Amino acid sequence: MARFVRRIPEGDNRERLVCADCDHIAYEIPKVVVGSVVVADGAVLMCRRAIEPRTGYWTLPAGYLELGETIEEGAMREAREEAQADIVLDGILAVFSIARIGQVQVIFRARFADEPTRHFAPGPESLEVGMFAWDAIPWDSIAFPSVRWALDAWRQSGPGPLGPPVGNPADDRRGTRRMTGPAQEAGL
Amino acid sequence: MARFVRRIPEGDNRERLVCADCDHIAYEIPKVVVGSVVVADGAVLMCRRAIEPRTGYWTLPAGYLELGETIEEGAMREAREEAQADIVLDGILAVFSIARIGQVQVIFRARFADEPTRHFAPGPESLEVGMFAWDAIPWDSIAFPSVRWALDAWRQSGPGPLGPPVGNPADDRRGTRRMTGPAQEAGL
């Protein structure tokens, strides 16, 4: 395994992780997460996680953008991978910064591409997948704070044309808080 | 220097760059660029690049988001670093995907924080910095296609409240085209 040391590389002005064996600089850069609030008849598509972290908790179809993808392609791929759903994107619903873990999340509002069939099923990273009306959302078993933020953004913006993207909530502008309750115990 | 080979690491499903010496996986992940269209009296703040690539060409104050920053903090830092300007963000003007080089760009519309002084001056990465009315923008010396896209987004959206973020132009949805003209010769 690589052994990394923290130092300022020549020509830089910040400490970086540098491999002690080969001098490779492992830039710790923010990661882009793309995901969707997929809506049909006022209900939203959610996935129960089959993988760590937060196995067993509910999330939106979302994940890391891959190199060479557009944000739109990434969001559509995640819906296919996690919920076996083909989706059409309405536009950007929210953009969140989670500074604590170096993430920028771009969340779209989306619809099923195969209306009125609306096929969905668990992908390999999901234990189960379901459509939830607002009051039926498993609020006590949400995987991450930003899932709640995205659901709130959807609720606030309504079903009409999208406006400016929603940002972090006022009480966590930098994305530094952890979940409260069971999630807090899980270190999230 | 690290010698990297391309192979699929155990438990993954894509080829990654793996160090032949130490097995470190250099994930090639998309990078987040944050920047601003800083507006005053219908003119926009632009910087002439002192660094490669595209030295001598004009750009907006923008750069890579650093770990631990929010997108807003990153955009404000870049305006300070490149144009010595303190800015206030109105909101997100545009979100672009440049799939060819693995970038997601979040571009804000902004104003000077020190109105009516509007202090700006070249930072270490800029040869000169100036305010340009639309017709005075150095269109023949723009550094990157996305600079033009952001300026177009500003022009289209006008000075009022921001709407949904502008995305890639219709003729380059994936962000794969290079500049035409002098920029093309520079390989951009």
Describe the structure.
The structure is a homodimer of 188-residue chains. Chain A is of the alpha+beta class and 188 residues long. Chain A is 16% helix and 33% strand. In chain A, strands 4, 5, 6, 7, 8, 9 and 10 form a seven-stranded mixed beta sheet that branches. Chain A has a three-stranded antiparallel beta sheet with strand order 1-2-3, with no helix packed on it. Chain A is elongated, with a radius of gyration of 18 Å. Chain A starts with a strand and ends with a helix. Residues 184-188 of chain A have low confidence and may be disordered. At the A-B interface, helix 1 and strand 8 of A face helix 1 and strand 8 of B.
Q: Tell me the greatest interface.
A: A-B, 42 and 43 residues
Gross morphology of chain A is elongated
Multimerization status: homodimer
Class inferred from helices and paired strands of chain A: alpha+beta
> Distance N terminus to C terminus of chain A?
27 Å
Q: What is the alpha-carbon Rg of chain A in Å?
A: 18 Å
The overall strand count of chain A is 10
Largest sheet of chain A: 7 strands, mixed
Q: Give the helix proportion of chain A (percent range).
A: 10-25%
Residue stretches of chain A low in confidence (pLDDT < 50, at least 5 long) are: 184-188
User: Would you list the SSEs of chain A in sequence order as H and E?
Assistant: EEEEEEEHEEEHH
Question: Strand fraction band of chain A?
Answer: 25-35%
Mean pLDDT of chain A comes to: 91
Q: What's the helix count of chain A?
A: 3
